[in-house]
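Hi there, hope your week has been kind to you so far. No rush at all, and the record is pasted right below.
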Amino acid sequence: MPLNLPTFLTWLRMLAIPMLVGIFYLPIAPMTMNIAATALFVAAAITDWIDGWLARKLGQTSAFGAFLDPVADKLLVCAALVMLVELNRVHALIAVIIIGREITISALREWMAQIGAHGSVAVHSIGKFKTIAQLVAIPMLLFNERLFGLIDCRMLGRWLIVVAAILTVWSMLYYLRRAWPYLRDAA
């Protein structure tokens, strides 16, 4: 396991997951809790971009980093969604759709890599838009208040998480359609 700056940042993102969950069990004011959770989630999400950029810039890409990075991302999003369901800020069906897609597509990509067809389910722009919608919706729902007295984060976050769920289903169908010939032949 290579330990370099990009991998270290990914490990920090993994460490942020129990911290994010733990914030909601601290005996602190709800507003403080919301701000702390939002700040931690945003910081973790930013490290996702930074570690990828650094890995490419410094020539420190590795097979382990390529494995760990998406795992950290998915665990962070899933943990945040579970907490948002617990806080009654996201409907459980939306969380199930998003988490179910992540598990399904991760398993599909792993299987496709094993049969030498990983390129068939490479990241597509639909998946990127889904990720952007999630990474904007989740901090808004964690914050759950008006920002600067103007932006209703709760309402905007709820709309964006629905958009993310729709894009989630759309991207899953796209990846499954791309993999269908391999799935059909394997059956």
